[in-house]
Amino acid sequence: MSVTCRAKINLCLHVVGKRPDGFHQLQSLVTFAQFGDELSIVDQTHTGGGDELQIDGEFASLLANDKTNLVIGALDAFRKRWPKALTDNLALRLTKNLPIASGIGGGSANAASLLKLASEISSKKIDPEQLQNLAANIGSDVPVCLLERPAIMAGRGEDIKPLKNFPTLFAVLVNPGITVSTREIFANLDQVKNGPLPDISEKFSMEELVNWLHRSRNDLDQAAKKKVPEIARIIAEFQANPNCLFARMSGSGATVFALFNHMEKAEQGAEIINKKWPEYWVKPTILMGSG
């Protein structure tokens, strides 16, 4: 049994205030790529002592398999919330295809995928609302990764409004191979009270979405570019491509996304980046619509 832990793409991210609990008040339009990590349950009754997480894939060497890993953290949280719902010795495998600390929600998607798998094999019926509450306790982005649909996120991330008529998008994701600390980026913001998202239509075309994105922002952009100048260079390279409709940093970086009209154009755009920076991680992919 396995699931894809899809990359979460923040098409925009507005920081509109700071909460009494110390977290920032956010508004963001989020969607998900078809591509991501893979999480599997290998064995529900393996003979080892306790749960086991094996990690392979392109970025496996950068990730620990102890309690600092959100997969293990989510499994522990699920067991505490629903004792005896799972067998004692689960063997899991995480194939890490997404860059670490890259602004596309890899760890949160891993945690959400664990909750999905645990719910499926649970001996107890798991209430979806209670599972969402548990997800929010694990991390700010875990609830929307559990939903895994285009949505507007607000608050700390717990206020989620799914979008019903969101178009499928063709994209290229690029990461320069530099990890970024989300906490550090937020700590270096010049301003924490900015304007809200523009009003968004219930139904819109690709062209209307791109026009809307031009009126939105990523308020983490400048702080991230100061730390990782490569972000600005990648965006500029995409903007010089006449086939690119829009390019921006996702989340706190350093991954950049670029949108195209067709998958063929996205693949051609990816090839241009690959030739210029062969050491970068480059992935043409589809960003899923609401259908």
UniProtKB/TrEMBL annotation:
It is an enzyme of class 2 (transferase). The keyword DNA repair does not apply. Keywords: ATP-binding, Kinase, Nucleotide-binding, Transferase. Its EC number is 2.7.1.148. Residues 69-147 form the GHMP kinase N-terminal domain. GO terms for biological process: terpenoid biosynthetic process. Coiled coil: none annotated. Residues 206-278 form the GHMP kinase C-terminal domain. Pfam families: GHMP_kinases_C, GHMP_kinases_N. GO terms for molecular function: 4-(cytidine 5'-diphospho)-2-C-methyl-D-erythritol kinase activity; ATP binding. Belongs to the GHMP kinase family. IspE subfamily. NCBIfam families: ispE, PRK14608.1. HAMAP family: IspE (MF_00061). This is 4-(cytidine 5'-diphospho)-2-C-methyl-D-erythritol kinase.
